[in-house]
Amino acid sequence: MDTQLPVRRTKTFNNPPSYSFASHRLRKTLRDSSKQPIVLVACGSFSPVTYLHLRMFEMAKDYVRQNTDFEIVGGYLSPVSDKYNKAGLLNAHHRVNMCTLAAEQTSSWLMIDSWEAFQNYQRTAVVLDHFDYEINTVLGGVYTQDGEHRNVRVMLLAGSDLISTMSEPGVWALDDLDHILGRYGTFIIERAGSSMDQATDSLARWRNNIYLVPQLIQNDVSSTKVRLFLRRGLSVRYLLPAAVVDYIEENNLYLDDGPVSEKEKEKDGGAGKREGDVGSGIKTPLQS
């Protein structure tokens, strides 16, 4: 079944002050002209960014190389806006700085896009439209070795908790699901203890655009657990990139992150999770 929908792009995007789109690691030329170029985008709080957030990209990269006709030309972390209204959410300035340190010092291909972080809350569908606009309209896409132009397909990268919320009636607006899963598609990273197949049963309409990536080495590090360690004065080294740990210590972050319920601790065991983009404007907060 063809799941591709007609293009629906926002005609104009309001950019934060002094904003510029990061493209210094975006590969402009395909290595294999038979492949379709894609960019991976992970949306989330990243408070703080952990090794599991970064590891998601590497797991997707292996899956893409071994199982698809795609070629990854770039990867982005897009921290959510402060207007996300999640209790205890660290301000965007610090979260963007930590993500930037993590990407620049641990990866050769990941980048940070601050467009979402420094303005009003933006729905995931609109965030993906923004990436599509910047990469394909402003930058002009990419090229093959022979100089043939190719548009880049933007794809959402997320943990399996996200796909679970998408399968719950009333959590996500149907139009947004159509746009995210129909036009763009997603790579879903398995979370320990969750059943991805069951979560995708009600999303069968878009099954050809949903790629389920197994987590071969189980990792349940989460930002919530890291914040809990920090409040208790416990070490978080080797759970986060060293530069991020140093930044947290230098800026005395997460020393008083507010109360965390047992329910919240149980829910937050993965990466890249995000609220459902509900049509009514009501948000279902998930931790990342």
TrEMBL record:
Keywords: ATP-binding, Mitochondrion, NAD, Nucleotide-binding, Nucleotidyltransferase, Pyridine nucleotide biosynthesis, Transferase. It is an enzyme of class 2 (transferase). Catalyzes the formation of NAD(+) from nicotinamide mononucleotide (NMN) and ATP. Can also use the deamidated form; nicotinic acid mononucleotide (NaMN) as substrate with the same efficiency. Can use triazofurin monophosphate (TrMP) as substrate. Can also use GTP and ITP as nucleotide donors. Also catalyzes the reverse reaction, i.e. the pyrophosphorolytic cleavage of NAD(+). For the pyrophosphorolytic activity, can use NAD(+), NADH, NaAD, nicotinic acid adenine dinucleotide phosphate (NHD), nicotinamide guanine dinucleotide (NGD) as substrates. GO terms for molecular function: ATP binding; nicotinamide-nucleotide adenylyltransferase activity; nicotinate-nucleotide adenylyltransferase activity. Residues 260-277 have a biased composition (Basic and acidic residues). It comes from Paxillus rubicundulus Ve08.2h10. SUPFAM superfamilies: Nucleotidylyl transferase. The lineage of its organism: Eukaryota, Fungi, Dikarya, Basidiomycota, Agaricomycotina. This is Nicotinamide-nucleotide adenylyltransferase. Signal peptide: none annotated. Pathway: Cofactor biosynthesis; NAD(+) biosynthesis; deamido-NAD(+) from nicotinate D-ribonucleotide: step 1/1; Cofactor biosynthesis; NAD(+) biosynthesis; NAD(+) from nicotinamide D-ribonucleotide: step 1/1. It holds the Pfam family CTP_transf_like. Residues 41-227 form the Cytidyltransferase-like domain.
